[in-house]
Amino acid sequence: MSRKLLFMGVSLVVLGGFVASAGAAPIITNVVRTPAATPAPIMNPPGQPFGDKATCFVDRVHVYTLLPPELPRLVGAEYILTRNDDKAAAGFTMAVTVASPCSVYLIIDNRMGGGSGSGQGRDPILTTEISAWMNAMGGFTDTGYDIAIDEGNNNSIDRYSSLYVSNSVLQPGTYNFGPQNYSGNMYGIVIVPPPTQASGPSPADGGQIGQTSVALSWTPGAYAAQHHVYLSSNQADVVNRVASADKGLVTFAVYLATGLVPGATYYWAIDEVNDTHPDSPWAGVVWSFTVIPVKAWNPRPVDGAVNQPSNVTLQWNRGLDAIQDLLFWGTNYDTVLNATTPQASPIGPSYALTGLPNEANIYWRIDTVNSLGQTTKGDVWTFGTAPNIPVTDPNLLVWYTFEEGSGNVALDYSGHNRHGVMTGSPLPSRTGGMAGDAISLTGNGDRIVYDADNGAFLNGLSAMSVTVWIKS
After folding, report:
1. DSSP state of 129
2. Which residues contact 95 (CB under 8 A, 6 or more apart)?
3. 449 and 363 in one domain?
4. Which H or E run contains 297?
5. Which of the chain's ends, N or C, has fewer CB atoms near its CB within 10 Å?
6. What's the first-to-final CA gap in the chain, in angstroms?
7. Domain ends where: 291, 308, 343?
8. Are residues 170 and 96 in the same domain?
9. Measured distance CA(282)–CA(260) in Å, rounded
10. d(CA 351, CA 336)
11. Domain hosting residue 38, numbered range
12. Residues 112 and 164 in one domain
């Protein structure tokens, strides 16, 4: 699902001040529909916290199912049984009072805006009516996750809804939820304590940066007054909060890290602090980022790849501050290692090699030139080309036996060099077959692709036979 951000507005009536411990008492303390209607919405149905098989509506037997595992905080949360008869109603408000800071999730029918069927795989198009009061609460963001609805409580999946989360923590007060003006299922309301840990790291966890200084930023925890920063190239030092990784307290959710080393991976964490709160501090998780190296990196084909075609496009990631690349390649490691005159200076980080010999080891190196004219010598990478397979039957156009043992290339044993590239996440795995080996297609998007000539070898054929062995 896509992510949509709704802006505007401020929250409504703020009732209280600081709450000593979120979750120590119910968050939802009242819900009132105006004008009154029977049955009325119910808050926190006794003995039924939110979760799988939780009832959706006060006037239906529908239940929620298939909660996204990525949002475990929803399980056991407080929620409101809204009235499904209100789905197309106008001119009402549902005033919900919360006693402590909270985040709000809305469950909105994916069919809103014209979708048909179950709504699986689509996003709702929000009506003007629902957008108005969502914006008045500070806006909501589509989390990208769905939840299913079993309308008969009979272990079926009938509809899908999107989960939206409030853009900001709602403070104690009363908030007016209103109409949606849509005849599908009514929206649902789930309310959880706000996150107390720092979240939303920038740079993203596991990401790369292209400079030796960076402003680290994050989304503060709900009760944070200060933020304790830990940063080190030693993961254990951050995990254990040792003194060498301690960068001190900051008031704002940003910290400027300088003097970073190209090619190094850094680990960081934020412990949220509020000396007036009995639960302080709130230790954060450890994130990481990597400063890209000065050398060229991430070669494709990967270093050590085998069974590559005779025509291959070399690709790589440029080093830090690189403005020019110098390519050296050949079939002798020492020659490529010691070469001083490049064969090419590609405009971008790619270069096509054609007519490579079969069953050869190809060595290549990328030197980078930075904005100061300084050259950094690159590592020597290697890949092997496919074996020379003779054509024994001209009518056999392509033949995959999957006996390569490893790698992402499926050799064409017809001799026509129509080698396929396996894709998927994870890649298809090789396993025993009826004749030779087979591949197990168990990942996401598993396939074998040959597109070097866009299928031109099939042009002019009036008929053909395809033989496949499949075991389910």
Report:
1. H
2. 30, 31, 32, 33, 34, 174, 175, 176, 177
3. no
4. strand 297-300
5. C
6. 30
7. 291
8. yes
9. 27
10. 16
11. 28-192
12. yes
Say how far apart CA 367 and CA 149 lie, in whole Å: 57
Q: Is the domain of 284 the same as that of 305?
A: no
Total domains in the chain come to 4
CA–CA separation, 129 and 134 (whole Å): 9
Q: Residue 54, Cα to own-chain centre: how many angstroms?
A: 28
Residues 32 and 181 placed together within one structural domain of the fold: yes
Q: Report d(CA 136, CA 125) in Å as an integer.
A: 18
The DSSP symbol for 109 reads E
Six-digit token string for 94: 């549902």
Statement: the pTM of the whole predicted model exceeds 0.70 = no
- pLDDT 10s digits, 217-258: 999 998 899 999 999 999 999 999 999 999 999 999 999 999
Q: Distance between CA atoms of 452 and 403, rounded to whole angstroms?
A: 22
Burial of 283 (0-12, 13-18, 19+ CB in 10 A): middle
Q: What is the pLDDT of residues 412-433, one digit of tens each?
A: 889 888 888 888 878 888 888 8
Cβ neighbours of residue 414 under 8 Å, at least 6 residues apart? 389, 391, 393, 396, 397, 398, 399
3-state secondary structure of 380: strand
Q: How far is CA 342 from CA 81, 219, 324, 335, 364, in A?
A: 70, 48, 12, 12, 10
Q: How many residues does the chain have?
A: 472
Give the separation between CA 332 and CA 355, rounded to whole angstroms.
17
Q: Do 47 and 164 belong to one domain?
A: yes
Residues 129 and 162 in one domain: yes
